[in-house]
Amino acid sequence: MKILVCISKAPDTTAKIAFKDNNTAFDENNVQYIVNPYDEWYALVRALELKETLGGTVTTVSVGGADMEAIIRKAFAIGADDGVRIDAEPTDTFFVAEQIAAYAKQGGFDIILAGKETINYNGSSLGGMLAELLDMPYVSMATKLDVAGTTATVECDIDGGTEVIECNFPLVISAAKGMAEARIPNMRGIMAARTKALNVIPAITADKLTEVKSYTLAQGRTTCKMIDAENAGSLIDMLHNEAKVI
Amino acid sequence: MSVLVYTEVSKGKIKKASLEAVNYAAQIASKTGTTATALIINAGDASLDDLGKAGASKVLHISNSGINASDSQVLTRVINHAVEAEAASIVIFSNDLTAKAVAPRLAARMKAGFVPGAVDYPATDAAFTVNKNVFSGKAIATYQVNSAKKVISLLPNSFQVKTDGTAVAATAFDVPADLLSSRIKVKEVKRESNELSLPEAELVVSAGRGMKGPENWGMIEDLAKQLGAATACSRPVSDIGWRPHHEHVGQTGIAIRPNLYIAVGISGAIQHLAGVNGSKTIVVINKDPEAPFFKAADYGIVGDAFEVVPKLIEAVKKFKASQN
Ligand SMILES: Cc1cc2nc3c(=O)[nH]c(=O)nc-3n(C[C@H](O)[C@H](O)[C@H](O)COP(=O)(O)OP(=O)(O)OC[C@H]3O[C@@H](n4cnc5c(N)ncnc54)[C@H](O)[C@@H]3O)c2cc1C
Ligand SMILES: Nc1ncnc2c1ncn2[C@@H]1O[C@H](COP(=O)(O)O)[C@@H](O)[C@H]1O
Q: What domains can be seen in chain A, in order of their start residue?
């Protein structure tokens, strides 16, 4: 079984969010990048578990500049067999999807996994676009993935519940919480990561359909009105008369 | 040219989030000198009048039991068929779980720039730009869409729903059978039938590890019931199985933006806030005056949940009685 896992990078979840150049760019000063949690904890780890029980290979693919390589090596340390970096700045998701689709078309992958979303842009869109470009079925927000022969059984979130579906290879899946448990790389993995093949390939020509023009920080709340616990019931009147939410 | 909006029925009625999307589509249509067409699939006996009342000039209804609505590939082909028939250049979705699977697919098929989870009306004067939350709600980015075709999914609860327009009769719309072939087989569907859907809820009562154990959730459910609110929880609570995992809100759970979010016994970690700080009004109940959540709240009560929550339940009952 050949599995491809889409790996992106994201600022550490506690990173301070600030912008520069007149609020047109994210300020990376002092920001630590990590493997996007959904890609690492769920997509990659489940791919490795499937490989360990059923055999096969796990390849990662990332669209990004040279700074992406530390992120890819982390995926290697956790257990990915090899990885590809497509050399381009990932500023538009359609552009990224075109890049990964062009690579995946030659690979003959049975399952392509992405994360539920990147925690910086929260798009949840790459998996769907990729599936469309590859003309493959797509299951989004998957919380469980099992494989028997050439059939995947996937449990995923739907509005108001969950659903279990079956689909033959090949297919694209986006991974959400529940699919696996995060793994911590061990010393052997970290040593092995250094010698695994990280192939850099040039980007293909593709359109960028969107661009971010500017950013603004979300406004925090100015004051918190404190209510005495003894008098907790008065909150309800305030919610009605003042906040007007009930 | 028109603006197409994809809508859905749930529990025999058009979803509130769909009506919001119709409002949104109608606004964009009038701004760009065109009209909005609502598309709905297998609405059954549900009344479709609200689609017109919410601003759709035309309603297309596809009745076809052969549509596998669990297959994003099929839905994409079907919606695209309507896009072509209507010569739509803009397609609007409500950013729910269906849209997360289908909208990016459709965008790729149409080669349309896609903005998922918009929170505002687009500006259409010079360039087409629209705002969306990024960094898990900590910032807002203004996206410019450069392609002629556009797909936008609207974050639910971004606007108050208006249905003061005029109803229009639905037109039956057919799709060719060859668009319906599906490779996805549905084995099982589990729906939480009685509960309010959390992403659509206007009022949410949420609780965290401060509740000590699942046996204490009765009062949280009671408060929610009295208010007509949905229930939610922090991540550790769903991780240890005190509450079902679909209630987990935050960075790694779902993001919500109700009118009212009441947080009981939740510390207010940055990853939790990421999923709830878009709420209009936030109430925090915590016994620790130093809990970080108070910094992100509009109303705070320092106290023991086990004493405060029953008082709130009584107060809501009294309030409701006074309203009758
Ligand atoms: C990458 C990452 C992603 C994460 N994603 C999420 C996420 O999506 N959602 C999420 O919620 N968390 C998430 N977390 C976890 C988050 O950091 C916190 O650990 C979690 O939110 C804490 O949950 P809590 O507030 O219920 O529990 P605690 O932090 O244990 O807080 C319990 C609170 O209850 C109060 N309390 C105790 N007893 C009482 C009482 N009797 N009456 C009133 N108050 C009382 C305490 O003062 C305390 O403030 C994530 C963490 C990481 C590292
Ligand atoms: N630049 C990238 N390179 C590789 N994979 C990516 C990239 N950006 C996003 N992805 C994948 O697509 C998923 C969803 O991303 P998004 O649509 O941006 O929220 C991520 O969790 C990754 O698995």
A: 2-214 (3.40.50.620)
